[in-house]
Every structure is written in C-alpha cells, then in structure tokens.
Amino acid sequence: MNWKLFAACACSVVLAVSTSSAAPRKPPPSPPLPMQDSGDLNEVLAQLALRKHGHVEFVEQKFISTLDRPLESSGELRFDAPDHLEQRTLKPRAEALVLDNGTLTVDRGRTHRVMDIHEFPQVEPLVESIRATLAGDRAALERLFRLEFIGGISRWTLTLVPLESKVKQMVAQVKIDGVRDQLIKVEIRQTDGDRSLMTLRPSPNP
Amino acid sequence: MTAARAWALGVWLVCIAAAGLIVAQAHIITDLSAFLPAHPTPTQQLLVDQLRDGPASRLILIAIEGGDTAARAQASTAMAQTLRQDVQFVSINNGEAAAGQADREFLFKHRYLLSESVDAARFSPQGLREAISETIDNLSSPAGLLFKSLLPRDPTGELLNIVDQLERSRGPTTRDGVWVSPDGSRALAVAQTAASGSDSDAQARAMDAIRAAFAGVLQGKLKGAAATAVQLKLSGPGVFAVLARAKIERAAIRLSIISSILVVALLLIVYRSAAALGLGLLPVATGAVVGIAAVSLGFGAVHGITLGFGITLIGESVDYSIYFFIQSQRRGDDPSLNEWRKQWWPTIRLGMLTSVCGFASLLPSGFPGLQQLGLYSISGLIAAALVTRYVLPALLPANFAIRDVAPLGLTLARALQPLRRLGALKVALAALALAAVCILVLTQARARLWNHELSALSPISIEDQNYDARLRADLGAADVRDIVIVSGADLESVLRNAEAAAGPLQTLVDAKVIGSFDSPAHYLPSLATQEARRGSLPAPPELRANLKQATDGLPVRIDRLQPFLEDAEATRHAALITARDMAGTSLGAGFESLILHQKERWNALLPLHSVAAGGDIDLARVAAALSAGKPGSQARVLDLKQESDALYASYLTEAIHFSLAGFLALTILLLLALRSPRRVLKVLAPLVLSVLSVAAVLIIAGVQLTILHLVGMLLIVAIGSNYALFFDRQGHSSNPEGQPLTLASLAIANASTVIGFGLLSFSQVPVLVALGCTVAPGAFLALVFAAALSASDA
C-alpha cells in the first residue's frame, strides 16, 4: 500500500515542518558575480567531457544551524560518463548512493531504496549538479540552473543557481571549484543559511 | 381420446404458466459464486471472502499507453483528480505525492503512537542518546540536508521509522510525478472500488466512470496529437469478471441465435412444414422454461452461467420431436401414433432416463455451477420428453404431413452396406483396436490429462491474463498472493493478534524467507499498544532531565529541542488513534483494505512480499514460524492461487468420480431395461468408444481436459445413448421396413446437434469451446459407431 510514501514524507514533511517551525533566515548576500564567460565555460566543460572515468576521495562538512559543530563525513566518489555516479560514504556510517541513468539507489544499513531522481525535484539538482558538471553536459545544467562562471581553465568556479521555485525554497546555490578537468570543492548553500562543503582529492588507488 | 388430449394440453398449459411465473420472478445472479464452493471449509471461507470482498478483488489496475511521457503523466494526473471526487472509489493511487498531504500530517502528528521503536527504554537517557545520535548520523548522509529540519521536533527520528514500517515493499517507478512501468512506456494507477469485486454491476459502473474520466481528459486537458495517441487500458479481477460476463453473454446469445437459425433451417428443409417446425420447437422451449424454473426453485437463484448453457439443452431436446415426427410420419392418423407409442416411445424414454443418470452425477457436486447445470438438464429433458409424448400428439393437425425422408434413410442404409459385408467379428476387432489406441494415448498422457488450474476455465484470453500479470509486476506490491490471516472477535483483538504475528514475521524477514509484510497494525496499532507507547513518554521534568543527560557531548543543545518536548507533552494528553482519525487519508484506505469484517468475524490480512520481485515464498516455513511464535494467535497462511487451484482440482476429482458413478448407474439402468448384458454392451460400446476417441484426439491436439470437457463427455453419453438404443431397438424390431426412417431421423437429429455444438467451438470463450469441441465430434462419432456396430450385426 501507499508506495512511495517515503518519498512524499522525506521531502514534503521536511518542507512543511521547515516552514512551520523555524522561520528561514535570509541567505547571506552573495557577492555580485562577474559576467559569465561562455567561451571559458565551454572549454572547461569540453575538458570535463573528455574524461570518461573519475575516482576521487571526498570529505564533506555540513554546517547545520541546529547543531553546535559541523558534521563530517568521508568516502569516495566514482564517475563513469555519462550517467553513472556513485557516492560511497564510509564514515561515520557506510552508505552507498548510486545514480545510474536517472535511477538513484540508496543503501544504508538494512534499507535499500530505489528512486527515479526526476520524481524528486528537491533531490535532482543536488545530484545533477555534480553529474552534469562531470559529464560536461551544459544542456543538462541549464535545464535546472542559471550558470555563472568565473576564472579560466586553470582555475575556475562554476556557480549553479536553481531555476525551479520549489528547489529554490531549499537550495540557494551550488558552487563548484575546479582546476582544469578536476573538481576541487563542491559547496551547497541552502536557503536557510545552512551549507555543506565537499572537498575532493584524487584517490590514491584509482 | 379427446378427454386424454384435453388433459394433456391442460396439464401442459398449467405447468408452462407456473414455470413461466417462476422464471419471471427468478433471481439471476452473475457474481463469482457459481465457481465457489457451496459448503466451504474455514480456509475456503477465507478464500471466498478474499475473492468476493478482499482488497485484491477491489482493485482496478489502470494503464495509460501511447503518446509521450508528459502526455501520459498529464492524463494520469487529470483522470485521478476527477476520480478522487467519485464516491465509487475508496482511493485512486497514481503515485502523486500531492495526494499525501493528509497522510503526512496524520503520521507526523501521531508519530509517538505509531512508531514501533517507541517503548519505555526509548526515552531513557541512554535510549534518547542512541536515537539522537542516529538521527545526527543520518544528517551526515548525502540526503541529510533533506531531513535536517525534522531534528528539533523529531530528534529520535520516529517519522522515518514509521515511513520505513509502511514502506518495506518495493514500489513502482515514478516519472513526471506519476507511476510508470519500469521501461517508462505506460503510466500506471490503481483504483480501489468501494463495491466488492464480485459485484459485477458495480464494477462495470466503476469501469465506465474511469473511461468517462479518461475521455473527459482527452477532450479537456489534452488536445491534438497527444490526445489521439494515448489509450486507456483496464485490468484486475473485477474488470475480468465484467468482461467475462459480457463475453459469455454475448457468445451465448449470438451462438444461440445462429444455431437456432441453422437448426430451424435444417428442420424446414426436412419437414417442409411450418406447423411441424413450430410443434418441433415446443419440447425445446418447454424444457428450457421448466429447467430454469426448477433451478430457481431448487437453488433460490439462477446463475447467469446456467442460462448461458441453455443452448446445450437444444442439442438433445430437439431430437425428441425429430424422432417423433419422422418415426410416426407414414400416416398422420392414430394407428400410426399408437404404433409409435408402442414401438419407439419406450426407447426414447429409456434414452431420456440414461441421460438423466448422466446428468444426475452433477447434482452432488460441490460446485454450484455444475449442480445447477445438472438440475437444469434433468428437468428440461424430462419436460421435453413428456411434451413430445403427450402434448405433440394432441396438437397434431388432422392433415399433418411432412416430407417423406425415407429416401434419405435408404441412402444411409446403402452407405452402411460395406460394413454389413465386413462381418461382426472384424468390426468388433476394429473397435477394440481403436479403443486400445485411444487408451494408450490417454495413459501416456496420464500426468497432464487434466488441467487442475482454475484459470483454465477463465474466459479471459491468455494475452489479457499476461497483461494483467505485467501490470502487477510493474506495480510491485499490488499482487497479493500469499497472505497471513489473523482472526479475532473484535477490531482490538484482531489488531493485537496481528501485532503478535509481526514478531515471527520479522524474524522471517531477517532470515530472508520473506522480503517484507504489510499489516493493518502498521497503520493503526491496537489500543493496548498505543497506550503502552503513550505511557512510555515521561512527564516533562523527567523527559527534560533525560534529554539533558542524553545530549551531553552531542552537537545538539537541549534548547534547540524545545519543540520535541512540547510535542511529547501534547501526545501524553492526546487521545489514542481510532480508525475514524484516518478518514480522508490514503492510510485509511490502506488500513481498510487489510481488515475484513464479516458478521461476528474480524480478519486482519498481512500480505507477504517475496525477497525478489516475482519470487516464491516458502509458505511451510512461514506457517512453522507462526505456529511456533505464539500458539493460539490464530494466524493462518493462505496462498490465494494455490488455494483456488486446489479448490478447483477438488471439484474436478469429485466430478470425475461422480461421472463414473453416473456411468455405473446408467449401466444398471440399461441392464434392468434390456435384460441382456450383450445388448447393454452393444449400446454402451459406441458411447465409450466415442468418448475415448474424442478425449484421445483432444489430448493429441495438445488440449488439457477441464471440468467442461467432462460435462461434454456426459452430453456425448446422454445424446449418443439415444442413437445406440434406437439401433438396438431396430435390431430387435419385428418391423424392418421402419429402418430407413429410423436412420433418417437419427441422421437429422445428429446434424442438428453437430450444428449447435460445432458452433460453440468457434466462440472465444474457453468453457464454450471446451463443450463444443467435445460434444460435436463426440455426438457424430457416437452415431457412426452405433451404426457401424449394429450394421455389422445384421
């Protein structure tokens, strides 16, 4: 019965509760961004598109206002072009999140869930921002975000601002720092001021 | 004589009037009960309840195909919106999250009463610390940002626990906000009707409502190419019942009309007399009316399917008038009638009685459909024979004459000449050889001779059944095949028993014997359990102290968790949940579908899901675990498909036994009437031979025999016994000049039977095809064999 209640609850209660409990604080004003340079962006994306496989380690810090200190988790990320992305968290608790051709599989402890990311407007941008950037897929990025690019091929910052109003209620922006075809940092800023910062570095055993 | 005629006519008219009156008031039922046992065992009763009223019976599976993903999703959403306003439906599920606002509020509000994790230890300093630590760990997961706002009000993560509780089964894929098949080619929805699945009229109305809503969507929201491309398809048990009924009705009506026309045409050609035709149909019509009246009196109601088989009665009862007209035709005067009465009526009577013996074997069946068919045939045949004997002679006009069919008889007699020359021994040997071959074929195929699955009777095509199975697989959880059933005297005790069964079932989940299970107690725990959970929430000062101790060293401060303390205190003073609180939520529908309330009996259904989709569940282990868990918890395991197949298989075995008993009774009857084992053997030989031949040919053609083939075999014996008895009578007649007439009457009677039943085999309904392709060739062979065996004797 009531399949996908999980989905309904996980996402929508969150929204319902978050709007009812604490009034969301205004996001810190982001600094004005320079005009995006379409040529450099295309060059970076072209470089990224050339890479068919990637394997990196990550450390993620979440800064959540209700908690006194940031939460830290770490693990590894794997990518196979164009649409296979795995995030394997090892600490503090093992969890595998596998995106394959639009289907997201989550394994955590005894729970195993399969979902179609298109059905979760709140989840899709979080996952797609990384996948589409790694795939160098500008069309996919522009479907969900307004793109702002600064820097050049040797060091760049790509800022993704959600287009969907539903998503905007939660996510203010995703900021990706990179060097050539490597992602260095992924920062997700939430509308209520909370944020997560993921730092990536090449895996010692690729 | 005149007085006798007047009496006969008077009695007939009174009988017809009375029967007509009964028929006019007869209650025709079209539900599934014709296929359900008359006196069920407790397990069968559960099955019957399931098939009639169970959640599975109320589901209409809806698929939208064609067009593109967006058009299908749009159609699904708009259609569901319309249907949710319709009181005929308890719920419309198409995967839309929007439908769940009330659900979410309900779950969140009652989380401390609903969550299985809540017990006395949960709110101790240590329990709180563990639960809060886990919630914080969850926040560090990639999905953590989605859950973080729950922390202040639900730091112990009860909502996610409840969602887990309800969501252990695999759900369908969603695209563009609605359910779709895994390949994305169709949008899916499930409607649950308020009416039970066995209420075919209500199911038909519900189907119409769905079609109308879909048509409305095509005219409104969807325009142009998208609208012409998308198609609606419906499936499910109720839909099948409606389709089956329509199909049988259509086939029975159409075939009755066509075969009536053909038989009438045949009789017109033979008789060349409208009066003879009209009179000839009297026994048939009388038989049909009396048959329905007898069933109505005997059973209180007539199954639609019994009426559908009315056509079978035409097969034999029309023969009586054919025999009468042809065999008494030489002069239309009384001496000839008297001669017919003396010479032929006893034979027809004996043939009728042997048929009655055959059909009587259906009466003790546990299958109401067969019982009715038996009573209908017996009373109809007796009525038809009596009308032929007493009413037809009384109604014959003075100048009554039909065409002389003696030339036809002579031609047939000449055709039999070669057999006559062959000699009795050779014909008998040939018959024995044929019987041996047939028996060999049948014994070779012994293991797969009979089809023991109920679906073999289903008028639904294999394609439709496969389509239904595919939709169920797409929907994942919707296929309730294996169910644990828990009983109780009232709702509270049935819920307590369901909770008691959850322990052993969870052990089975952990051991991977089953994938998961649903339970009504997941939606609505028993009051006892709710009370215990509510009681485990400490008073504010204690909870605050525990919380302070628990969060020491954790990255969350107690002042952030004030909303939790408030909610916990509110729950301590709130009322317990009742079924009424779930009104308007899809949880209410989910709960209702798992609770069956009939008279003083309450049953809770705990559907089991296999580990892998479509996998089998070891029900023996489930049963063992349940009985070991807690004796007297009243939990039983029910495999719906296996149970219904077993039920059908028991009907089949029973029907085979009764048919053999009927055959024995028929043999004794013939022994008493003919007083010669040799004559009885000669009467029975062609019947046995033709039944064996037909069965062997069906088996060779790859057909598995069903209960309807068995009924067909009874009909072969019933109809064929007349032929064999006429040849027997002919052989012992002192008047050989009547022989061509006998042959002609038999040939014509046989032609009408073959036409009637032959047509059935062209229908799309398996039960009718089974009857047709058994009786048509069987009746023909019975005549040929009877003629051959008797000709060789002369």
Describe, in plain words, how this protein is organized in 3D:
The complex is a heterodimer of chains A (206) and B (794). Chain A is 25% helix and 43% strand. Chain A has 206 residues and is an alpha+beta fold. In chain A, a hairpin with a 2-residue loop joins β9 (171-179) and β10 (182-190). The model of chain A is unreliable at 1-36 (pLDDT under 50). In chain B, the strands form four sheets. In chain B, strands 9, 10, 11, 12 and 13 form a five-stranded antiparallel beta sheet that branches. Chain B has a four-stranded antiparallel beta sheet with strand order 3-6-2-7, sandwiched between helices. Chain B has a two-stranded parallel sheet with strand order 1-8. In chain B, β4 (173-175) and β5 (178-180) form a beta hairpin. In chain B, α12 (274-299) packs antiparallel against α17, α16 (345-360) runs antiparallel to α29 and α29 runs antiparallel to α30. The relative contact order of chain B is 0.13. Chains A and B meet through α1, β2, β5 and β6 of A and α4, α6, α7, α8 and β4 of B.
Brief characterization of the structure:
The complex is a heterodimer of chains A (206) and B (794). Chain A is α+β, with helices and mostly antiparallel strands and 206 residues long.
List the topology elements.
The complex is a heterodimer of chains A (206) and B (794).
Chain A: H1 5-20, H2 38-50, E1 53-63, E2 71-80, E3 84-91, E4 95-100, E5 103-108, E6 111-116, H3 124-135, H4 138-144, E7 145-152, E8 155-162, H5 165-168, E9 171-179, E10 182-190, E11 195-202
Antiparallel strand pairs in A: 1-2, 1-11, 2-3, 3-4, 4-5, 5-6, 7-8, 8-9, 9-10, 10-11
Helix pairs in contact in A: 3-4
Chain B: H1 2-25, E1 28-29, H2 42-53, E2 59-65, H3 69-83, E3 89-93, H4 101-109, H5 111-114, H6 125-139, H7 144-147, H8 158-166, E4 173-175, E5 178-180, E6 186-193, H9 200-219, H10 225-229, E7 231-235, H11 237-271, H12 274-299, E8 302-303, H13 304-308, H14 310-327, H15 334-343, H16 345-360, H17 368-395, H18 406-415, H19 417-422, H20 424-444, H21 462-475, E9 482-488, H22 491-510, E10 516-517, H23 520-523, H24 527-535, H25 540-551, H26 562-573, H27 586-593, E11 595-598, E12 601-609, H28 619-629, E13 635-639, H29 640-674, H30 677-700, H31 707-731, H32 739-760, H33 766-793
Parallel strand pairs in B: 1-8
Antiparallel strand pairs in B: 2-6, 2-7, 3-6, 4-5, 9-12, 9-13, 10-12, 11-12
